[in-house]
Fold:
Amino acid sequence: MESKDKSKDIKQGFIKKIEKKEKRKLRAKGKRYQAIWFGMGAFGVIGWSVMVPTVVGIAVGIWADRKWPGQISWTLTFLFAGIILGCLNAWYWVEKERRSIEEENKD
Structure:
Protein backbone atom coordinates (compact mmCIF):
# COMPACT_ATOMS: atom_id res chain seq x y z
CA MET A 1 0.00 0.00 0.00
CA GLU A 2 2.78 2.39 0.93
CA SER A 3 4.66 1.74 -2.30
CA LYS A 4 1.53 2.60 -4.33
CA ASP A 5 1.14 5.90 -2.44
CA LYS A 6 4.81 6.64 -2.86
CA SER A 7 4.72 5.93 -6.58
CA LYS A 8 1.57 8.07 -6.94
CA ASP A 9 3.30 10.97 -5.13
CA ILE A 10 6.34 10.64 -7.37
CA LYS A 11 4.15 10.67 -10.49
CA GLN A 12 2.22 13.75 -9.28
CA GLY A 13 5.46 15.57 -8.49
CA PHE A 14 6.84 14.70 -11.92
CA ILE A 15 3.66 15.88 -13.65
CA LYS A 16 3.71 19.19 -11.74
CA LYS A 17 7.36 19.71 -12.64
CA ILE A 18 6.66 19.09 -16.34
CA GLU A 19 3.63 21.44 -16.28
CA LYS A 20 5.72 24.19 -14.70
CA LYS A 21 8.46 23.83 -17.34
CA GLU A 22 5.90 23.79 -20.14
CA LYS A 23 4.26 27.00 -18.89
CA ARG A 24 7.65 28.69 -18.64
CA LYS A 25 8.60 27.62 -22.20
CA LEU A 26 5.31 28.86 -23.62
CA ARG A 27 5.69 32.18 -21.81
CA ALA A 28 9.27 32.54 -23.11
CA LYS A 29 8.22 31.64 -26.65
CA GLY A 30 5.64 34.42 -26.64
CA LYS A 31 8.23 36.93 -25.42
CA ARG A 32 10.99 36.00 -27.88
CA TYR A 33 10.96 39.28 -29.80
CA GLN A 34 10.07 41.28 -26.74
CA ALA A 35 13.32 40.12 -25.12
CA ILE A 36 15.41 41.86 -27.80
CA TRP A 37 13.66 45.18 -27.23
CA PHE A 38 13.78 44.67 -23.48
CA GLY A 39 17.55 44.24 -23.66
CA MET A 40 17.95 47.35 -25.78
CA GLY A 41 15.74 49.30 -23.37
CA ALA A 42 17.72 48.05 -20.39
CA PHE A 43 20.95 49.26 -21.97
CA GLY A 44 19.31 52.62 -22.55
CA VAL A 45 18.02 52.96 -19.00
CA ILE A 46 21.33 51.93 -17.51
CA GLY A 47 23.26 54.25 -19.81
CA TRP A 48 21.08 57.24 -19.06
CA SER A 49 20.98 56.53 -15.35
CA VAL A 50 24.79 56.66 -15.24
CA MET A 51 25.33 59.41 -17.79
CA VAL A 52 22.93 62.04 -16.43
CA PRO A 53 24.38 62.20 -12.87
CA THR A 54 27.90 62.16 -14.34
CA VAL A 55 27.23 65.12 -16.64
CA VAL A 56 25.44 67.00 -13.86
CA GLY A 57 28.43 66.32 -11.60
CA ILE A 58 30.82 67.68 -14.22
CA ALA A 59 28.67 70.81 -14.68
CA VAL A 60 28.49 71.43 -10.92
CA GLY A 61 32.24 70.82 -10.66
CA ILE A 62 33.06 73.35 -13.40
CA TRP A 63 30.80 75.90 -11.70
CA ALA A 64 32.45 75.21 -8.31
CA ASP A 65 35.96 75.50 -9.82
CA ARG A 66 35.09 78.93 -11.21
CA LYS A 67 33.41 80.05 -7.99
CA TRP A 68 36.01 78.68 -5.54
CA PRO A 69 39.33 78.06 -7.26
CA GLY A 70 41.79 76.12 -5.15
CA GLN A 71 44.21 73.24 -5.00
CA ILE A 72 41.59 70.53 -5.42
CA SER A 73 39.67 70.06 -8.62
CA TRP A 74 35.96 70.29 -7.93
CA THR A 75 35.28 69.04 -11.45
CA LEU A 76 37.04 65.73 -10.76
CA THR A 77 35.45 65.46 -7.33
CA PHE A 78 31.93 65.93 -8.66
CA LEU A 79 32.70 63.74 -11.69
CA PHE A 80 33.48 60.82 -9.39
CA ALA A 81 30.47 61.62 -7.20
CA GLY A 82 28.25 61.63 -10.30
CA ILE A 83 29.66 58.31 -11.50
CA ILE A 84 29.11 56.71 -8.10
CA LEU A 85 25.57 58.10 -7.89
CA GLY A 86 24.85 56.92 -11.45
CA CYS A 87 26.15 53.41 -10.74
CA LEU A 88 23.99 53.18 -7.63
CA ASN A 89 21.02 54.36 -9.68
CA ALA A 90 21.71 51.75 -12.40
CA TRP A 91 22.10 49.04 -9.74
CA TYR A 92 18.69 50.00 -8.33
CA TRP A 93 16.99 49.61 -11.74
CA VAL A 94 18.71 46.30 -12.52
CA GLU A 95 17.84 44.91 -9.10
CA LYS A 96 14.20 46.04 -9.46
CA GLU A 97 13.93 44.31 -12.85
CA ARG A 98 15.59 41.15 -11.51
CA ARG A 99 13.03 40.95 -8.71
CA SER A 100 10.14 41.32 -11.13
CA ILE A 101 11.54 38.57 -13.36
CA GLU A 102 11.94 36.27 -10.35
CA GLU A 103 8.35 36.99 -9.29
CA GLU A 104 7.16 36.16 -12.81
CA ASN A 105 9.11 32.89 -12.83
CA LYS A 106 7.65 31.88 -9.45
CA ASP A 107 4.17 31.64 -10.95
In short: Residues 1-30 form one domain.
